[in-house]
Amino acid sequence: MDALTPSLAGELMLVGVSHQSAPLDVRERCAVQPDRLAGYLAALRALDGVEECFVLSTCNRTEVLVAGRVDERVEKLLLELFFRAASPPQLYTHRGLHALIHMFRVAAGLDSLVLGESQVLAQIKDAAAAARAAEGLGRRLAPLLDQALSVGRRVRNETAIGLGTLSVARVAIDVAAQVFGGFTDCRALIVGAGETGMLVAQHLFSAGVGSLVFANRSQDRAAAAAERFGARAVELSAIGQELARADLLVACVDGAGHLVRLEDFPKRLDSRDRPLLVIDLSVPRAIEATVAGQAGLFYYDLDDLARVVDRNRADREKATEGTAEILVAEVHKYLSLRSYAAAAPAIAELRARFDSLREQTLDEVVGERSTSDHVRLAHELTRRLLDAALAHTKDTIRRSRSADELDREYQRYLESRTQAEER
Amino acid sequence: MIQALVVLLPVVYAAAAALALIEFSTLGAGGGARTPGLPWRVGAYAAALALHVALFAARAASVTGTPSFEGWWAISALAFAVATLHLVVAARQGTSGTDPIVLTTVLVLQLAASAFAPLDTSVAPDRPIPFYLLHVTSILVASAALVLSGLHGCLYLMLFRQMRQRRLGNLFERLPSLHLLAQLMRRTALVACLLLLLGSNGGIWWAHAAQIPGFTYGDPVVILSLLLSVYFGAVAFSRRIPGLTARRASFAAAVGLLLLIASLGLFLAESNFHWTR
User: Fold this and answer.
1) Best mutation target, A154, A178, A179, A325, to test chain B (most B CBs within 10 A)
2) B260 closest CA partner among B184, B182, B151, B107
3) For chain B, percent of residues with pLDDT exceeding 90
4) B59 three-class SS
5) Based on the structure, what is the number of domains in chain B?
6) Strands of A61-68's sheet, edge to edge?
7) Residues B183 and B66 grouped into a single domain
8) Chain B residue closest to A172 (CA)?
9) Contact A339, A4 (CB under 8 A)
């Protein structure tokens, strides 16, 4: 490492558990509740050797990033403070450059349970705000987290990693959107008021659906769901009547058999201006499969929608190939900016020395005979010499770590992850 | 100059169509940038329109009068009108999913026009400007709207078929919604209907006012225009006609496009098809 490029090793350390390393019960016990975060950050700041700190705790990970004189002693303290519930194989520690790469990958959604999801960006932003409020961010972590957020946005803008939904309920809404355009004049009937039914209703409600009706085996549950979304609740026997008016039917009732039969559907559906959309998310199917043959309707079951989810997942995984280049470039940028910041005092000193030499030379050579031309010439000469010296310094900083070297480091990070997963 | 533009124009339209197709086939697919062809695609589209304007300006200058909209030059003008009208519609709707099919149609029209349009610079017939321009412009924009209505109808049918077969593939991902396609099909049909009426009647009025000998209400183009106007009027108001669903209206619009193509064929092949020839 060049003297102008400050090393991250021994300065930066990240310890954590995530969905990739530990089961849910361990993650739950390691999680830091929002109301206790400030206390944990204060405790971190009090640790000898820790100058800056940041804690990210979500349902899928708890990670502690510290900067300062971080060694094995600090690591032990972190494990003791945050990760007593986790056993060593469930934990990971990244130091120096690998900690930086890991943080950038997390922000990019490459380490998320749902590849490319963007919620993590908001979580990092909130965690950074908490760390800032606790005075845990300084010259190392503040720019690092700012850049991590920018990396997250850049990766999602420049690659397809965030495109295509991975939720079957969301795909169902996308299909409906492709038929109806918007939902403001759409009448939806949801059969089932369980978790999936509520999720579908939530999506439709957010999209501004014109009218929503729930039909459920338990009338109480249907009524509760209807109340939540300002909808109507009907009995299962009324499905036929409701279908005469509905544009969209979504069934999400597991283990109920055929609740919606062919005879429930209105006759002459093909005379409607737009087709009736029928989506069955139930297992086993709650809508008779023969319905699919009726004219004037589109019918989809779970398998149809799962194919879209699988394709989106494959697309996102393929898109990760394009992220390495962006991440390496961003790591390079972070290191360069850090180096410029590190060199700033030396540059200021050099500038002062040049100014002093200029004044001294002017006094010695021309003394009181100096004219404005002499002064202008001396200033111009000093400025040009200083610019030449600084250009060389900046070039040295820029070249101190080649993209190839960082690329190899990125590959080493990925290999270390693979080895850890295999263990 | 005209010859160079006539040769260059299909090439630029081909580039615009190819870039739109590339973007259509890669948009949202994994592994690459999200809209790789976007800046070039918009640039090629704009360049094609600018070249088209330059071609007509050069033609107008060379014939020392109103640029002729007859014969194969009318086909070129139709290509320009379709491309321009589509640009307006796509910008208003914020969608570029229909670009490939529209630009390919424009390319075919312009390719034919470039291949067969005469390059002579004979003086154009002297026309009384206001009525002639009203007549020609209305018919031209109406024809472009009719082409777009037919194309949107075709796309509706393709997407409908794919979704009906439970295949949520490329068309599902990249085309506008069925609702929007039906809306575009009907709105462009309405524009076509109104402008065909205006253009036909403007033409009749002009012929009377100018007391042009040989004028007849039995002119096949006049009859065809009025028939198409009624036909596309039915498409435009199909939501209010029981049984004429969006799918059936789309089919009707697609058939209307075939009728237009047939009438253009007659217009080009038969010298007595329209008396103004």
Assistant:
1) A178
2) B151
3) 43
4) helix
5) 2
6) A50-57, A61-68, A12-18, A92-95
7) no
8) B168
9) yes
pLDDT, tens digit (0-9, with 9 covering 90-100), for B209-251: 777 766 666 777 778 888 889 999 999 999 999 889 999 999 9
Q: By residue range, what is the domain housing residue B170? A: 146-277
Residues B26 and B106 in one domain: yes
Q: Which member of B29, B166, B245 has the closest CB to residue A271?
A: B245
Same domain, B213 and B100: no
Neighbours of B150 (CB within 10 A): 28
Give the residue from A264, A174, A263 showing the smallest Cα distance to A215. A264
Separation of alpha carbons A289 and A81, rounded Å: 56
Residue B48 within any structural domain of the chain:
yes
If asked whether residues B115 and B152 sit together in one domain, one would say no
- pLDDT for position B111: 92
Chain B closest-CA separation from residue A308 CA (Å): 7
Residues B34 and B158 reside in one and the same domain = no
Residue B177's pLDDT band, with cuts at 50, 70 and 90, is very high
Domain boundary among B71, B89, B123: B123
Per CB-CB distance under 8 Å, the chain A contacts of B179 are 179-182, 274
Asked whether the beta carbons of B138 and B246 are under 8 A apart, the reply is no
Answer yes or no: are the C-beta atoms of B230 and B146 closer than 8 Å: no
Single residue among B123, B138, B166 that ends a domain in this structure: B123
**ipTM of the complex in this document:** 0.83
Residue B35 has pLDDT above 60, yes or no: no
B136 within some domain = no
pLDDT tens sequence across B102-138: 999 999 999 998 888 777 655 555 555 677 778 888 9
**Neighbour order of strands in the sheet with A276-280:** A232-234, A211-215, A187-191, A248-251, A276-280, A297-301
Distance CA A318, CA A164 (A): 13
Walking along chain A (423 residues) 10 residues at a time, the average pLDDT comes out as 56 93 90 92 92 92 94 92 92 93 94 87 94 93 94 90 84 93 94 92 94 93 94 93 94 84 89 93 89 93 89 87 89 84 78 86 79 84 84 71 78 83 70
On whether the pTM is more than 0.90, the answer is: no
Collect all residues of chain B within an 8 Å Cβ-Cβ radius of residue A270.
245
Residue B128 forms part of a structural domain:
no
Check whether residue B102 and residue B5 sit in a common domain: yes
Picking from A2-6, A19-23, B172-176, B256-260, which range would have the lowest pLDDT averaged per residue?
A2-6
| The residue type at B20 | A
The reply to whether B186 falls in a domain is yes
Ramachandran angles phi, psi of A189, nearest 5°? -120, 120
E strands within A150-193? 187-191
